[in-house]
Amino acid sequence: MAHNNPWPDEGNTGHIWDEDLRELDNPPPLWWMLSFYAGFIMIVFYTLYYPTIPLPNSYTKGVAGWTAIEEYHEDYNILKDWREKKFSGQEEQLAALSVEEILQNDELKTYAVKTSKVLFGDYCAACHGSGGQGNPNFPVLADDDWLWGGKVSQIKTTITNGRQGNMPARGMMGNLSDEEISQVTDYVIALSEGRADDAAVAAGKGVFAKGMCVACHGPAGKPLAPAGAANLTDGIWRFSGDRDEIIKTITNGVNVKKNGETTANTRVAIMPSFKDRLPNADVNIKRLAVYVHSLGGGQ
Ligand code: HEC
Ligand code: HEC
Questions:
Q1: Which residue, among 222, 177, 226, has the nearest Cα to 203 in the 3D structure?
Q2: Which residue ranges make up each domain of the chain?
């Protein structure tokens, strides 16, 4: 910095570097000052207009009463109205047509399937898995092994009213011994492996008749009509194909109740009713029935 100023009349501040670099004392340009004041006015405006200053238990609300969440709701409603208008045709058709008719209309079927995924995720996936692939103790929906029937109308009834299979403990009369249960278990395993006529499981086959398993599971381990009993011949296990687990099922039954209370070791298998659980149930049950039917195993 130089102490003697070689440019005394120039109006510089006297700060001089590198011999001739010097600081002048000009006012800032007008445009710059105007922006500066405008910015200042904006700050005052913002502070008064919008929620701004945090207070111990609250905040200044601003004269406009604006909040981000309200703006979000407004935008969301605009989008919702738009969607409702855009898809109102399809929604009306879903409401008006039967599930069978929806299935026959490719465009409408595709629409029902596409709009089911979120619904299925919210209401069904916790038990049945996100793609209907099942979970331990919850049936697979994406195959063609149906307890209650794979026709779309049967699926719709299942979702509407719920389902609950019943299998008595220790055979229909409740009188099978541990040994008989062990024998019939071997027969059940043989059924699932296609060796039901093996001499080795003849005793179990007799127990299958004695325990009246045939009444529900059918004479050949395949239910004659879907009424909740598992198909024992297809190697698809509703609970488990593990020998001890099969013994447990036959010993304790399924959904067995005593004096209104579920017994200790019985299998619990309850499909809840959705007619009062789903929003807009009438349309959404049809939508889901078509979706489940499309998962792979609809009949
Ligand atoms: C709390 C668990 C649970 C939820 C949630 C649930 N389910 Fe189920 N679902 C079951 C059980 C358990 C069964 C088997 C009932 C039985 O064994 O008799 C079942 C059976 C079914 C069946 C019959 C399968 C067959 O083989 O015949 C269909 C179809 C079905 N559920 C669809 C749905 C749909 C669609 C939803 C969602 C709206 C849903 N479920 C939600 C537990 C559930
Ligand atoms: C009153 C009808 C009924 C009778 C009688 C009955 N069952 Fe069942 N059984 C069912 C039902 C219903 C299920 C399936 C429950 C479900 O999936 O919700 C079932 C399930 C089973 C399973 C489990 C299959 C799997 O996929 O995990 C086995 C094993 C079985 N039964 C064997 C037998 C044997 C052996 C007998 C005779 C001792 C018998 N059942 C008698 C109704 C019956």
A1: 177
A2: 1-68, 78-163+274-294, 166-268
Residue 1 has pLDDT above 60, yes or no: no
pLDDT tens string 243-296: 999 999 999 999 998 888 888 889 988 899 999 999 889 899 999 999 999 987
pLDDT digits (tens, 9 = 90+) for 188-209: 999 999 888 888 888 899 999 8
List all residues whose CB is within 6 A of at least one atom of ligand 2: 147, 165-168, 171-172, 176, 184, 188, 208, 211-213, 215-217, 228-230, 232, 237-239, 246, 249-250, 254, 269
d(CA 36, CA 275): 64
- Quick count: other Cβ atoms within 10 Å of Cβ 2? 13
Residue type present at position 149: G
Average pLDDT, whole number, for the chain? 89
Q: For 55-75, how does the pLDDT look when each residue is reduced to its tens digit (9 = 90+)?
A: 999 998 889 888 989 999 999
Architecture of domain 166-268 in CATH?
Orthogonal Bundle (1.10)
CATH of region 78-163+274-294, choose from 1.10.3720.10, 1.10.760.10, 3.40.50.150, 3.40.640.10: 1.10.760.10
Residue 201: HSE in the Cβ half-sphere, 13 Å Cα cutoff: 20
Distance of CA 11 to the CA centre of its chain: 76
CA 283–ligand 2 middle distance (angstroms): 33
| Å from CA of 135 to ligand 1 middle | 11
Label residue 3 by pLDDT band (50, 70, 90).
low
Angle CA 7–9–12, to nearest 5:
65
